[in-house]
Design brief:
The protein is of the alpha/beta class and 291 residues long. 19% of the residues lie in helices and 40% in strands. Strand 7 and strand 8 form a beta hairpin.
């Protein structure tokens, strides 16, 4: 089996778990590829490294069966950009804290690897959001698993984002910014700004204002078959546009729109995974002494 691994900087407490991953995969006879960045990190650690190739781009992953993300949700989001439309299944092993996407506990690494080899897992397909811009500001990485966000920059004054759905005027948002998230992203930035929790397979976008000046403005759920376009204005000359953890500074002349990406991200879930259980655990959702 061909397996790729990506990770970020890690704490000393994570070293035994990363070592366990390598040892188990070597024992299974896996052919390994490690991301260029993760390779640079582990070479500075005390981890005993097996023989592996270093991958630098998507073309190096064409024959990979799975990619393992070692870290938190941010690490997994980076792995999504590595594979793009290859749709290689991603197993997220959580070395971080919350972990809505990286749902496999580090203590269960051996069990997770066995599951990959025995087909004891499910594939959870997640939709992506695609940013269309003129000029193209993210090149080939103009897609995200969580959200696209427009934010004010370098000023205390709010901005105005005029939003349109399939060319029809929706609203002018006087706010610090505007988020358009996928169902996956509904547990992220959108949630912290008052957006709703949405089940992963809901086929929707969530439009959530960031600190809106008009308190009558509320988050809105629209079909992901829609094309949502924007015009931005404000006192500042520059604004911030981000997709997941990647951001770019733009001016008001830019043309922006989002729609559903044609390909998806495939997440590996062990057979005992349940999204609603995950909500209750990560958010203390429904925590009540009566329960």
């Amino acid at each position: 089996m061909n397996i790729a691994i990506h990770g970020r900087k890690f704490s000393p407490e994570s070293i035994p778990f990363i070592q366990t991953l390598f040892d188990n995969l070597v024992k299974k006879g896996a052919s390994l590829k490690v991301s260029k960045y993760f390779h640079s990190v582990i070479t500075k650690s005390k981890i005993s490294r097996p023989t592996y190739e270093v991958y630098q781009s998507k073309t190096d992953l064409s024959n990979v069966n799975f990619i393992i993300s070692m870290g938190g949700d941010g690490t997994l989001l980076e792995a999504v950009t590595h594979i793009g439309d290859l749709e290689i299944p991603i197993l997220g092993i959580n070395l971080g804290r919350l972990g809505f996407l990286a749902t496999t506990a580090k203590e269960r690494i051996n069990l997770a690897i066995d599951a990959l080899y025995k087909d004891y897992y499910k594939i959870d397909k997640r939709s992506l959001i695609k940013l269309i811009s003129d000029p193209n500001i993210f090149d080939d990485l103009n897609f995200g698993l969580n959200e696209m966000t427009i934010l004010k920059k370098d000023t205390s004054s709010m901005i105005v984002v005029h939003a349109y759905i399939d060319g029809e005027y929706l609203n002018s948002y006087w706010a610090d910014g505007l988020i358009v998230s996928t169902p996956t992203g509904s547990t992220g930035y959108s949630l912290s700004c008052g957006g709703p929790l949405v089940l992963p397979q809901s086929n929707n976008f969530i439009i959530t204002p960031v600190s809106p000046h008009n308190l009558n403005v509320r988050p809105m759920i629209v079909s992901d078959k829609s094309v949502i376009s924007f015009e931005i204005e404000g006192r500042s000359k520059n604004f911030l546009v981000s997709i997941d953890s990647r951001s770019y500074t733009v001016d008001a002349s830019i043309k922006l729109a989002v729609k559903k990406e044609e390909f998806c991200t495939k997440l590996v879930k062990l057979d005992d995974y349940n999204f609603l259980d995950n909500l209750r655990q990560k958010l203390n959702w429904g925590l009540d002494v009566r329960n």
